[in-house]
Specification:
It is a single chain. The protein has 10 helices and 16 strands. The protein has 433 residues and is α+β, with helices and mostly antiparallel strands. It has 2 domains: 155 residues, Creatine Amidinohydrolase, Chain A, domain 1 (3-Layer(aba) Sandwich), CATH 3.40.350.10; 231 residues, Alpha-Beta Complex (Creatine Amidinohydrolase). The strands form 3 sheets. The chain has a 6-stranded mixed sheet with strand order 4-3-2-1-5-6, with helices on both faces. β2 and β3 form a beta hairpin. The radius of gyration is 23 Å and the shape is globular.
Length: 433
């Protein structure tokens, strides 16, 4: 006899987001759970995220979401098996109608979830294997088997006559899903809508992640001296972050001296020299919640040209921060930044990402995106509970140096809170002569 499908109680996201006292800073309470104060409530966060996804699904024209993006899988299921999975396309989840999520995971990971993830239906944690990005060819039939299984679950949920939203997918799987009778549409937009407003637990985790980088920048300030290489700083930053509890150091940019202009977005073994301007970006996550956090330093001393570049970058970022409050459009913030031609670039495409804003959460780039490239024609409205990074870049008149500053902000009911706290109002001089 078939097991009956249970219709879950639909929870409103607002019920899972306690009122926040915006007059006080969002806390960064530490990594431990304690019995003497309220910290992160992970079960509440799981319920909130699933409720947001359901709400976004119901507001769309789709009847189901089939998700392969690891950030979407984690958002809905609260599961993760490490950075190994980020590019493997090996985990996926189905959210169909009012049914509980069904998760397919890599081999024994599904058994682990049955034993350890009591917020999921045990029978909905299933082993899955599509082919590891084509290394097992579609002709082996794995994709066909899963596509037919998914289509049957969608029929059981009563939404087979509606489109299925999908985020990322291998071509072979797309073809098999269509053969199974499913109409596929863009589901990434639905999930990005759902993920844009964070609850209090997500805000705390984002702030905790930023607090970890505060500490790393103090280390960099002390270590940045002639003879040290860019990759030495990157190695020490990685070590410190993992010791502090990071679950993924996604990337660290370390750019110094003549490498600052144009911005190469990487690091090398270049040796730091006296008078260098150097900037760093630390991208890491704590419990999945990410940072994007630039700081610029000078080594020992600074020239007037380098100071001027920093002052302009600071003015640009302060101007954009002053605009952040609910109801403001992303076009209004982008208008605070210089045109590409004003700082040496041919057009906004070539300068993309230098004067920039982007949402933060389980992914490095969420809603909203703020840029002169897209925001004037397609503005988005800021809302309380959004979290995003604002970053500016100014080349120096010496032709090689440049300043780069980034601040992460939480949109509050009346303005914003800045959660990146390593001092950056004035140009820091490391190991001053």
């Amino acid at each position: 006899m078939d097991k009956p499908i249970l219709t879950p109680t639909i929870i409103r996201p607002d019920d899972l987001n306690p009122n926040i006292n915006w007059k006080r800073p969002i806390p960064a309470p530490g990594h431990s759970s304690v019995d003497f104060e309220t910290r992160v409530d992970f079960r509440r966060m799981h319920r909130y995220r699933l409720a947001r996804a359901r709400q976004a699904l119901k507001a769309s024209k789709c009847g189901a979401l089939l998700l392969f993006d690891v950030n979407n899988v984690r958002y809905i299921t609260g599961t993760k098996i490490g950075e190994w999975d980020r590019d493997k396309m090996s985990r996926f989840v189905l959210l169909a109608g009012d049914a509980e999520p069904v998760l397919w995971d890599f081999g024994s990971a599904a058994v682990h979830h049955k034993l350890n993830c009591d917020w999921l239906e045990p029978d909905n944690c299933r082993p899955g294997m599509l082919g590891l990005r084509g290394t097992v060819p579609p002709s082996a039939g794995l994709m066909q088997r899963h596509a037919e299984e998914i289509a049957d679950l969608i029929r059981q949920a009563g939404v087979a006559d509606l489109p299925v939203g999908i985020d990322l997918v291998e071509p072979g799987m797309w073809f098999e899903l269509e053969k199974a009778g499913l109409k596929l549409v863009d589901g990434q937009q639905i999930m990005l809508d759902g993920r844009e407003i964070k609850n209090v637990d997500e805000l705390i985790l984002l702030n905790q992640a930023a607090a970890m980088v505060d500490g790393v920048y103090h280390m960099i300030y002390e270590e940045l001296k002639p003879g040290v290489r860019e990759n030495d700083i990157v190695a020490k930053a990685n070590k410190m972050l993992y010791e502090m509890g990071s679950d993924d150091v996604e990337a660290i940019n370390a750019i110094s001296g003549e490498r600052c202009n144009p911005h190469p977005h990487n690091f090398t073994d270049r040796i730091i020299r006296p008078g260098d301007q150097a900037f760093f970006d630390i991208l890491q996550s704590y419990m999945g919640y990410r940072t994007c956090y630039y700081r610029t330093f000078n080594v020992g001393l600074a020239t007037p040209s380098q100071r001027d570049a920093y002052t302009k970058a600071r003015e640009w970022i302060d101007g954009s921060i002053s605009m952040v409050r609910p109801g403001v459009g992303t076009d209004q913030i982008a208008a605070m930044w210089p045109k590409a031609q004003e700082f040496g670039f041919e057009n906004e495409m070539a300068a993309f990402g230098l004067q920039f804003g982007h949402g933060l959460g389980l992914a490095l780039h969420e809603r909203p995106i703020i840029s002169r490239l897209v925001s004037f024609d397609h503005p988005m409205e800021l809302k309380a509970g959004m979290v995003f990074a604002l970053e500016t870049y100014c080349p120096a008149s010496d032709g090689v140096s440049a300043a780069r500053i980034e601040e992460e902000v939480i949109v509050t009911e009346t303005g914003c809170q800045i959660i990146t706290r390593f001092p950056a109002q004035d140009l820091p001089i490391a190991n001053r002569y």
